Amino acid sequence: MTTDRKTTFLTEELPRKILLHCPELDEEGTVSGVQLSTPDHLDGFMSTIHKLSFQYKSKDGSDVRTLNLMVKVMKGSDEFRESSKGKTQFTNEIYIYTKVLPVFQQLLSTTESDFAGDWCPKVYYGEAGHFPTYSDQYETILVLEDISPLGYKAGPRLDLEEEHLRLMARHIASFHACTYAMRIRKDARLSALIDGIVPLDFISGDKTFTSYDVLFKLGANRLYKYLDDHPGELDSEAFKLDITNLRQRYGTTPIRLMQTLLRKDEVFSVILHGDYNRNNVLFRTDAAGSLIGLKMFDFQENRYATPVIDLAFYMYMSMTEDMRNRCWDAVILEYHTALLASLAAILKVPQDDGLLDPYRLEPFLEHFKCHAMYGVIVTLHFLPWMMCPEEECEQLAYHFARDIHSNELAHWTMVCGGEEVDKRLLGVLRHASSKGYFEIVKQ
Q: Which domain range does residue 120 map to?
């Protein structure tokens, strides 16, 4: 399998597939001026993202335009894809884009709601399977609109401003509302959509999600070592007891706690983004610099589970201690207010209608409290990767792909970013303790 083989597919076969797949394009149209590039900054741990552009002209000449696209493909050996559950993750991502989003958008159009359902960049092509002219492996190929020419760009690398946090909360709330609206309406399509998502469990029978088992354990071990070296940081009996309980119950296997937090809930379980954080959204601003838009992407870790996964993770990852103290509760309330408003709009009922009672603030806050530790555990693993210098992150990424069980990965995980990282992670744990989120550990 050569790079030339893949390049030929991407520049010759794929444009034609896009014309055949995308309803707004003429399958008998022509393609010219194809350009393909692979920017280094778009290279992910598990995927490669190419930029593809070409001139498109419909058969009758009435539609002539340049298509600027992003092409996402899997990377790595079969062994790497197996240990990281790449096949499941990327196949589920294609499913969300090609099956779930169209149903949600149809729901919004038939209810005449004001929501357009444009949560994501436009999808031009998505397919999973074998592409013999591309490679000998099982592959997924996803083609989305490149929205950077429209002014969308990444937010701050780590610490988001309050307006970013609130916009992200409103955005994901309207997405979650579609699941709840379909449930309230007893829409038969919902169960079919849920059944189409391949379960991405952390533990299934006697099998464990290997990469996360290692990463969660390393992330937790780093904090435990820091606390062992700085016992004075356990500055209250309540915090000390919470950490003690966590270590006793899940010290070597935090992945068991994570699996518990994936449990289904007849009221609150929702079709998730699953990896909703600063890395997987792009923001748009007006001339004055005010936020006016947001698009999300990367549904690799989508699940049918608690909506708190799409909240606690990005909130813990992107809030400084000062920001948490100032607006943690306000961001949660922003989400809930947008959720009820979205539900009422989709269902065409007033917000005080009894149909919405299961989703009122009090039961939602209780549900949030019981699941927020999901965001804590993921942050223990991922925040060091985002905070450390680029050269350390390169070491982490290299050893993650080479051998996840290596001593080198364990070493870099324990030291990357230094004490600044340790103190920030400690702040996350202390905040979770003060909010009562550790209560789930005792159950």
A: 1-145
